[in-house]
Amino acid sequence: MSVDLDKYFARIGWDGGRAPTLDTLRSLQHAHVLGIPFENIDVVVGTVPSLDLTDLEAKLVAGSRGGYCFEQNTLFADVLEQLGYGVTRYTGRVRVGARPGEIRPRTHLVLGVEVPGGGEGPGGGEGPGTAGGGRYLVDGRYLVDVGFGSTDALLEPLPMIPGLVREGRGRRHRLVLEEADGPAPVWVLQAARPGDTWIELVSFTLDAAPLPDIGVANWHVSTHPRSPFRRLFVQRTHADGHVALDGSTLTRTARDGTVTVERVDGPEALRELLESEFGITPPPGVRPER
Question: Which of 112, 134, 144, 70 is nearest to 208 (CA)?
Fold first, then answer.
């Protein structure tokens, strides 16, 4: 089974051409991020999110819901494959907030997307394009991630060229390489913060992740008692800013960087907020956390 493309495009408000070009990929990724919110409500109420495409279509496309990385990128990968892109799934380690030297499990899913006919080459961005190891260039492949959710997340595909700095929709990203003890180098996605400070978002290797391994990672994230996703976390990116709910704390970030914070008080206020700010109709049992 594959996702119904017409229904998916209507869900994200997209009506572009369907040829598998780089421009199509850019437009689709941005529309998806704006159109479908990031949320982990199923995990909070005690359910393991299904990665079956029928269930993903019912929830993220036909339903007034969103999802987290495994759901979002599984759905997007199917859409891209139907359009004619080559897609490789990678599991990664989230580095945001990690302690120095800490090795976290592979609890994030990203996509390597091949554009038919090749990519744009090492030009088109800041930097030399091959910094950190030119022998690791991946011709025509782009890093795509519609399931990170934060204000640092990718809004457009990033060429898989080490050292190349790319600005997309007002956000700057780059990929750097770390020489690992094993045979595969580690790719690290970084985002620029004000003052030209770079933070690490996620690391991964180019080992393709088979679907059973993705399913195990999804189960681990949704059931482990110390998983950060056992706490309510909802985000939505808008053209003019970003809104995030962490427990009972709501943070709005305007496009100019202005931040406002407020508290959500009570289950009724939470339900109204999820519907008005995030476009989510939540299942019963969701409550703000103290």
Answer: 112
